[in-house]
Write a structure and sequence with these properties.
α8 crosses α11. The relative contact order is 0.15. The chain is globular. With 412 residues, it is an alpha/beta fold.
Length: 412
């Protein structure tokens, strides 16, 4: 994979020109794209910028995020050829930091369930996950050092786990979702994929102009709460092993570990995530579903059909549970610095019929807290499995620092 932090170091030292750094990504895409299929479209003549912390860095943009120079087709026939007039704010943040938009990465239709044809670079017989399929695959294949994705259920952390890359779903609204096709305004979160945690931190710090996110200092005495989310069902053996390996490594590095049971109201919040998501989806996708129902992708259309009966009263109750659960989770964090849990039920499923299950991601998206995937284990077939480090809301710097701690411990 291409390390963003190493690129930055070499460019700053004059060892690598911005044009050469960009050409490195273009050559890697040329070599692998016909096999992996990570891009929906590519920039015709991308140019490296000469200024900014991300100069020379090629970035892929998930194809539900508006770009003024490239189509935004959302993986859906309804929007084939759609060309926005303006870049989404997150795209402008990247450009302001000096990055070059190299192309749009594949997404499941409307960032929902209908899979793409993108292959997992680690094992072509398996899914890369979704809905941010192309972003995870492009970074994992060594095509680009940084990519944007989005998460409404588990669409950043899960594909990162399946493809063996680092990823962050930041605190809700740290990155703006204006110009991003809405599915659920309470849940939709823009996130990043990169080769390692330091790369994530540098990318997010550059975009947001928050240098504290990329601070070099790692925690000295880290308190980690191990959470197995029993209410979400049992993990497969690959994820159970990944969590054990990561926890053991952190303990050897000096972290204090304790198993935590989450309050019942938090478990209730996990159960009502679909109520929030699909009540809002019926409004966010009203034009597509009502005016273009037959052109809707079949799996999403079926889920919208099934959820059509959610009432405003049920939604209001779910929102009230969400507020109470967020307060209870904040109290839980008084006992530990971060939580450590599964990123996905197991390794990437075989075939492309499914992008995998979101059951270990739903709660944390609803809670709006920062989550970082750290690759922890390689299962049979060369399939990676990650764990996620979770910090309190707004503590993105802590989440990244703790994830670097776990990453270093695993490498150690």
């Amino acid at each position: 994979m291409i390390s963003l932090s190493e690129l930055q170091r070499r460019i700053a030292a004059g060892e690598l020109s911005t044009e050469a750094a960009l050409a490195q990504s273009q050559a890697a895409i040329d070599a692998q794209e016909n096999t992996i299929g990570a891009f929906a479209c590519r920039a015709e003549q991308p140019r490296a910028q000469g200024e900014g912390p991300l100069r020379g860095v090629a970035v892929g943009i998930k194809d539900i995020i508006d770009t003024c120079e490239l189509p935004t087709e959302m993986g859906a026939a309804i929007y084939r050829g759609w060309q926005p007039r303006a870049d989404a704010p997150v795209v402008m943040m990247l450009k302001k930091a000096g990055a070059t938009i190299i192309g749009k990465t594949t997404t499941t239709a409307f960032a929902a369930n209908d899979p793409t044809a993108t292959l997992n670079p680690r094992n072509h017989a398996h899914t890369p996950g979704g809905s941010s399929s192309g972003s995870a695959a492009a970074v994992a294949a060594g095509m680009i050092p940084l990519a944007l994705g989005t998460q409404t259920g588990g669409s950043v952390i899960r594909p990162a786990s399946f493809c063996g890359v680092a990823a962050i779903k930041p605190s809700y609204r740290l990155l703006p979702t204006i110009g991003v096709k809405c599915f659920s305004w309470t849940l939709d979160t823009v996130g990043l994929f990169a080769a390692g945690v330091e790369d994530l931190a540098r990318g997010l710090a550059a975009m947001t102009e928050r240098p504290e996110l990329a601070a070099d200092a790692m925690p000295v005495a880290l308190r980690i709460g191990i959470v197995t989310q029993d209410f979400a069902g049992a993990p497969e053996k690959e994820s159970a092993e990944a969590l054990r390996i990561a926890a053991d490594a952190a303990a050897r590095a000096g972290a204090e570990l304790r198993e935590l049971a989450l309050p019942d109201i938090v478990a209730q919040a996990w159960r009502i995530h679909p109520t929030v998501q699909f009540f809002e989806a019926h409004q966010a996708l009203a034009w597509e579903y009502r005016a273009n129902r037959e052109a809707m992708p079949p799996m999403l259309r079926a889920r919208l059909d099934e959820s059509a009966g959610i009432t405003p009263a049920a939604y209001d109750e779910a929102c009230a549970i969400t507020v109470a659960a967020r307060a209870a989770l904040a109290e839980t964090f008084a006992q530990v610095d971060v939580l450590l849990t599964f990123s996905a039920p197991g390794a990437a499923p075989k075939g492309l019929a499914s992008t995998g299950n979101t059951r270990f991601n739903l709660l944390w998206t609803l809670m709006g807290v920062p989550c970082v995937n750290v690759p922890a284990h390689v299962a049979d077939g060369g399939l990676p499995v990650g764990v996620q480090v979770i910090a309190p809301f707004g503590a993105d710097a802590k989440a990244l620092a703790a994830a670097r701690y776990v990453e270093a411990a695993l490498a150690g």
